[in-house]
Amino acid sequence: MGELRGRFAPSPSGRMHLGNLFSGLLAWLSVRSAGGVMVLRMEDLDPDRCREEYAVQLADDLLWLGLDWDEGYGKGGPHGPYRQSDRTELYAAAFRKLEEQGLIYPCFCTRAERLAASAPHRSDGQTVYSGKCRNLTEEQRTELARTRRPAWRLIVPDREVSFTDGVQGRFEENLLWDCGDFILRRSDGVYAYQLAVVYDDGAMAVNQVVRGRDLLDSTPRQLYLYELLGLTPPEFYHVPLLVAPDGRRLSKREKDLDMGALRQRFTPAELTGLLAFWAGQLEKPEPVTPAELARIFDWSKVPENDITIGNEL
Ligand code: GLU
Which atom of ligand 1 lies nearest, measured to the CA of 13? Predict the structure, then answer.
């Protein structure tokens, strides 16, 4: 592999929380410890949830901790634009490429129908789409399109896709039975995360993706899209999630752990020390800067399983 290119790909749908920062720090350390290039891309595709003011705040929160980037949002670079909402034409072209191969069909199912017609297969509780609309005739499609705007799904084959994750090890899924035909474009016209993230990481020449392990089981689908679009996939590192003592995942709803509250309570070095301790890089939480950590960063010390945070906070 040539130069290492990693990225932050946050969704500006609220203030960042501790969990986002944890994966962000690991992505940054991995790139900086190898002298690579860091890219910041705002994943603001969903107009109902994302706001520019959150994006501005997010960039400020990353810089407060000491996590900088070389290319991307607010900086520019050769692979822009770096805001997904400015890249719709590019996703439309990728979508057409798949459509021309006969791989996409309109799905008229409502959410309730989708749930009723699917089998609850996946470990994360998500349902696998039954393929109900895959075999509609042209007449049925025309008829249904009179009253409903369809979402658009990709046809997946009955095929195992496996890969070796840098933290989680070997992971395998059957595209048809574990994932099912998945949505590439919503009925309101918004392109789906799966399409946009693959297209962008490919087009931005990202060759290392570090993110939360909640996205581990999206990866086989994404690898399939890389193949169909003729793009080179990156290496993946799915890092553990931070969970509350009662086992709940931290989320943007936990106001006491969002960056607003954390910036009041900790200095950047104190917070980095905590995150580095959870990431297995320090024996105990003590103040340290990201730049200092980059000198000792070691992927093999990053734990595989979710991390319960409690007393340290
Ligand atoms: N935008 C996604 C999120 O904030 C991350 C996507 C990715 O890293 O692949 O959850």
Answer: 4
Q: Could you tell me which of 211, 261, 214 has the C-alpha nearest to residue 20?
A: 211
24 pLDDT above the threshold of 80: yes
> What's the pLDDT tens digit per position in 89-119?
999 999 999 999 999 999 999 876 766 666 6
Amino acid sitting at position 39: V
pLDDT at 38 over 70: yes
Residue owning tokens 């960042």 = 16
From ligand 1's centre to the CA of 267, what distance in Å?
A: 26
Least confident of 4-8, 51-55, 198-202, 307-311: 307-311
Q: What is the DSSP string of 152-163?
A: EEE---S-EEEE
For the Cβ of 262 lying below 6 angstroms from any atom of ligand 1, the answer is no
* Ligand 1 center to 9 CA (angstroms): 5
Q: How far is the CA of 83 from the centre of ligand 1 (A)?
A: 13
Distances (CA, A) of 283 to 124, 235, 275, 278, 287: 32, 28, 12, 9, 12
- Distance, CA of 210 to CA of 297 (rounded, Å): 14
- Count the helices and strands in the chain (H runs, E runs): 10, 12
CB atoms closer than 10 angstroms to residue 110: 12
pLDDT score of 111? 77
CA of 136 to the centre of ligand 1 (A): 33
Residue 191 DSSP symbol: B
Give the pLDDT of residue 209.
98
In ligand 1, the atom with minimum distance to the C-alpha of 10 is: 4
**0.90 exceeded by the pTM?**
yes
DSSP 8-state secondary structure symbol assigned to residue 250: P
Give all strands (DSSP E) within the chain, no chain letters: 5-8, 37-40, 71-72, 104-107, 151-154, 160-165, 169-174, 182-185, 208-212, 235-239, 242-243, 307-308
